[in-house]
Amino acid sequence: MDVLDLFQRYRDDVYRLALNYTRSPQEAEDVSQTVFLKLMEQENLIPGREKAWLMQTTANQCRDLLRSAWWKRTEPLSDTLRAREDPIDETVQVVLGLPPKYRVVVYLYYYEEYSAAEISRLLHIPVSTVTTRLSRGREILRKKLKEV
After folding, report:
1. In this predicted model, what pLDDT tens digit does every residue of 73-113 receive, in sequence order?
2. pLDDT at residue 54 above 80?
3. Three-state DSSP class for 76?
4. d(CA 87, CA 67)
5. CA 148 to CA 144: how far, in whole Å?
6. Is the pTM of this model over 0.90?
7. Per-residue CA distances from 127 to 47, 55, 123 (Å)
8. How far apart are CA 16 and CA 23, in angstroms?
9. How buried is 147 (Cβ within 10 angstroms: 0-12 exposed, 13-18 middle, 19+ buried)?
10. Sign of the torsion angle spanned by Cα atoms 125, 59, 121, 137
11. Which of these, 55, 70, 83, 112, is most buried using a 10 Å CB contact count?
12. Three-state DSSP class for residue 44
């Protein structure tokens, strides 16, 4: 499969994962672009494992961005810009409000339908950590959704 086909097929998945990590549409677009540029340079991609490679590379790229000194010095734009965006249902808003370590695991599990073992491989963390984060993330969601 060529890069253009992979781009057409997985661009939304890569973007959504990046957006989930960064919570910034512009940063998510930059991460997505970087991931697909890296895909173009990739020579040893295993057929049938393209999506896993893309998701893992996206997660790694986002973590690198979030650890960067530049990211730590930036401040989010005012909430007035969000008023122009499409409305998001309450559940998605609560998921986006989770701390990043829970938000990403919950997103991958429920929205991308990865198993705990697959998430473990994608994020390079133990399966027990994934299940713990899922459990804690669900508990936080349960409490926040009762408030809403």
Report:
1. 555 544 434 444 544 567 777 888 888 889 889 988 988 88
2. yes
3. coil
4. 30
5. 7
6. no
7. 25, 17, 10
8. 10
9. exposed
10. positive
11. 55
12. coil
C-alpha to C-alpha distance for 58 and 53, rounded to whole angstroms: 8
DSSP structure string for 80-139: GGGGGSPP--HHHHHHHTS-HHHHHHHIIIIIS---HHHHHHHHT--HHHHHHHHHHHHH
Q: Are 67 and 22 in contact (CB under 8 A)?
A: no
Helices 116-123, 127-147: crossing angle, 10 deg rounding? 110
Token pair, residue 114, equals 């990865």
Q: Report CA torsion sign: 110, 104, 24, 13.
A: negative
CB 17 within 8 Å of CB 58: yes
| Whole-number Å distance between alpha carbons of 101 and 115 | 16
Cα 105-36-53 angle, rounded to 5 deg: 45
The string over 16-37, giving b where at least 16 C-beta atoms fall within 10 Å of a residue's C-beta and e elsewhere, is bbbbbbbebeebbeebbebbbe
